[in-house]
Amino acid sequence: MSGSAISRTELESAFAQYVETACRSVIEGDLDPWADLFAEDAEYIERIQGTFRGREAIRRWLKDGLPGFPQSEMVDFPVLWSIMDPAQAAVVFVCFNQLSDPGDGSLHRAEVWARLLYAGNGLWHGEENIYNLDDFASMAQGWLHAHDGSAEAPTWTAVSDQSPPPAPVRPTSREELEAELERYYAVIADCRRAGSWEGFGDLFTEDAVYVDHAAGVVQGRAGMVEWMVETMAAPDYQHLERFDILWRIVDADRGWVVLATRNAMADPGDGTQHEAHDWGRMVYAGNGRWSYKENMYNPHEFAAMFDGWRAARTAASH
């Protein structure tokens, strides 16, 4: 049913049922009810562990891939926010994977972003998720350290545990959001070609916030420009050629755009493609400026992209 309009009421009801069933399945250890929510020809894209096609393949992966620590200690999956597009039969949501109390009352969790595609009749024919693998490693290590003081303490602190400011809400028209999103990526492309990122700052308000789930939280337009200049000056990033939008959901009532982007490298000389994905949430402030930008991605996927590109360029040069 992806691409055909359904009612928001049906989509919201199916999503609520999905969240309730998936959470109960993991907590109770019976994963069949969760698998049964997928259509027979469903596709589950787990950006770290692989792609699973068909309900039974998804069922096998859930049963084989989820048992064991830290999944065995997961007791809650609170949803932080969700955004729906009935026209695309799509839902994007963000939740925490939260572990049990290790014995000292401390909280250990990691953030996951997911996209669901609705098939109708309470079933889903697609799911994809994305997360920072370092967050999960830190969550697991932190729980072990709290449970047994002899275990090594984690050295990484997830951005979500640094209490970044919440995304604001500013209703606007869908037409303005669509036009400004297109302009945003046109300016990004111009900045990349020119090798100057001052124009990037002009896209944001003075007090804008940039939340990057690998790099941290940057406050203010000036800080954002400084961070972008430093990031894009790195040798690997200088060879990023395109930032292609894969999908997007526009919520005019909140002034939000949630989207996925393909970061594509230039041809290394042998015609091969090297890419990595990130998902984002943007909040529009009006007058051609954005007040909030959030990016979720797995930095290890970007590292693999850069490594593969460098290897291909070296081979092509010989």
Key phrases:
318 residues; alpha+beta; Nuclear Transport Factor 2, Chain: A; 2 domains; 8 helices; 34% helix
What's the arrangement of secondary structure elements?
Elements: H1 8-28, H2 32-35, E1 38-46, E2 50-53, H3 55-65, E3 74-76, E4 79-85, E5 90-99, E6 109-120, E7 123-130, H4 133-147, H5 174-194, H6 198-201, E8 204-212, E9 216-219, H7 221-232, E10 240-251, E11 256-265, E12 275-286, E13 289-296, H8 299-317
In short:
The protein is α+β, with helices and mostly antiparallel strands. It is built from 8 helices and 13 strands.
Write structural notes for this entry.
- This protein has 318 residues and is of the alpha+beta class.
- The protein has eight helices and 13 strands.
- Strands 1, 2, 3, 4, 5, 6 and 7 form a seven-stranded mixed beta sheet that branches.
- The radius of gyration is 21 Å and the shape is globular.
- The mean pLDDT is 94.
